[in-house]
Amino acid sequence: MQAPDWIASDTPPSDAADPMVSESSTYVMDPPELRTRLDALGLSEVKASQWLGIGDRTIRRWMAGTPPRSAARISATIEALMDTTDGWVDRLSTAAEVEVCHGGWRILSDGTALPESWWRAVVGRAAHRNPQLIVSWGD
């Protein structure tokens, strides 16, 4: 099982693909749902902001009850990442061994950069499904 490439950096690479979906519905997550989704994805408000390419104040204000104008598009992007995450959990659930790191970013095949905290959340869910999965630290 080939894991996404890893880079050591506090911020996503400048050439990372824009993760925002091009079209969205009118659905907007309320603050508790946004928090639940970000927690499930292993994303802090700061890491979510970096991944989405938006200001961290945008997420904080949304958590406080004031969604941004782009909330529907951001909600759709987070939902798309939930689907991507589920796919990675499915793949890792059948793997024998996987490596995680303390920091940095994972680069998916489409060029999207996701923080290592996301990868640790994926690995944690996969290990829950497959207690035989060997998890090692890479850095």
In order across it, which strands form the biggest sheet? 1-3-4
String of helices and strands: EHHHHEEEHE
User: Compute the gyration radius: what is it?
Assistant: 15 Å
> How many strands in all?
5
> What is the makeup of the main sheet?
3 strands, antiparallel
Euclidean distance between termini CA atoms: 19 Å
Count up the domains: 1
Organism: Corynebacterium pygosceleis
Protein name: Helix-turn-helix transcriptional regulator
Region (Disordered): 1-28
Explain what the structure shows.
The chain is an alpha+beta fold and 139 residues long. It has one domain (5-13, 25-137). 45% of the residues lie in helices and 12% in strands. The chain has five helices and five strands, in the order βααααβββαβ. The protein has a three-stranded antiparallel β-sheet. The chain has a two-stranded parallel ribbon with strand order 2-5. α1 (31-40) runs parallel beside α4 and α2 crosses α3. The chain starts with a strand and ends with a strand. Residues 1-28 are annotated as: Disordered. This is Helix-turn-helix transcriptional regulator. It comes from Corynebacterium pygosceleis.
